[in-house]
Amino acid sequence: MAAKNGLLLLSAIAAVTLSSLSLAAAATRRSQEPREAVRAGYYLAADAHLRPLAALDASLYTHLYYYAVAVHPARRTLLLPPDPAAASLLGDFSRAVKAKNAAVKTVLSIGGGGAGGGAAAAAGSGSVSDPAFAAMAADPASRAAFIGAAVKVARENGFDGLDVAWRFPASAVEMAEFGFLVAEWRAAVPRGFLLTATVYFSNHVFDAPFAGVDYPSEAVARSLDWVNVMAFGLRPPGAANATAFDAPLYDRASHYSASYGVVSWLDAGVPASKVVMGIPLYGRSWFLRNKANNGVGAPVVAAGPKQRGSNATGAMSYAEVQWLAATATRGSRAVITAYDNASVASYVSVGDVWVAFDGVAVVAEKLAFAARCGLLGYFLWPVNYDDANLTVSRRASQVWTQTKISPEFKNVTGGARQTQAPVQRPPALQSPAPTTAPMSSSSSFSRLSWRMLDVRLHLGALLLLILVCYQI
């Protein structure tokens, strides 16, 4: 009888063990399933007049972001558009986009200070902060209420996800609260609901008032589907009186480059499959001091002319850059367009106006870099700044699709970093030694190791029970 009971017990334990092993294997398979590549675009609601939703080709994107709903500066609640036309745009966005492409996912971006001042102002830099967002995130009660309200608004208006667009946590305390926020947000959203974040560099946020301002990479990797890295708005300090690229892929003299921004997240331990690289559809402009001196680093006297469309001084939409060059050519004015191979950046000079922008050649090189890094995809900032033919959006979609299926870019990791080490970071921007070890790029191996340990423990317990039952 004892032997029979032992065998029954053994059978039960074996069944439980095999079930556990099956669940562990299923979890491993799910974690290894490839995520759909991201071809995203941000649609600036404040500049909807430049491209109405009816003129947007949704087939060029897998994800479209409505940017943005701000945080109320006093009440720490959602600041929904007070204007009826803007409120109608928010309500119609998902329906209108999905009517053209049922497969596209729409995401409601929260924060960004309402994106006033156009795309270039919204891009900002590490020194830009959002006091209203910081105040909301600092209080657990207001965080919970805000998260609940945001999820409710997104679902009621047909969005498939939410984007945390806090530009930018400006201290170690605010970064910690960012981590709490995304973790609590993940716990609150329904299963299958997307959660992303619009972020800057993962560490050493430039021009921050305090040193050591690093994103909580572990919370980011654990809580978010991916991060959208704003790899633009990278004008170095001290360049206020000279022309400079706004989003170079490489910069041998500093860390102000798109490659550094992307690789900073990979070095922080966030998987490449959770990193999406930003490409600007705006150009940064200046008035030259001497139109005969029109190269990179040439002296300037002021920000470039204010544009009617983008309504910004010192910035132009891609469409406006193309219009400037075209009208100058027709008027027999000299137009100089240059592509810088070392930086992977371009500019156009027309008379005394100089504009740094990403042309299609630059975009193609950036997407090749993203593919070499194994990134999840790219996003365009913003899609309503493209020209009438959606030249950049179309070219980006074509290049990304061709690059991702090309054998040349499979399992290739070279070329992800700058070709030459930049100068040493100023001491004020160096982080203190971390108190805990950061999540390394081997985190996926660590998770697999834990699964293997779990399997071995189950097998060990099973063998032990066999011995015990045998004695019985």
TrEMBL record:
Region span, Disordered: 413-441
An MF annotation (GO) of this entry: chitinase activity
Superkingdom to which the source organism belongs: Eukaryota
Name of the coding gene: LOC127771382
GO cellular component: extracellular region
Record keyword Kinase present: no
Keyword Glycoprotein: yes
GO annotation (BP), single: carbohydrate metabolic process
Lineage, highest ranks first: Eukaryota, Viridiplantae, Streptophyta, Embryophyta, Tracheophyta
Identification of the protein by name: GH18 domain-containing protein
Family note: Belongs to the glycosyl hydrolase 18 family. Chitinase class V subfamily.
Secretion signal span: 1-26
Entries under Pfam families matching the protein: Glyco_hydro_18
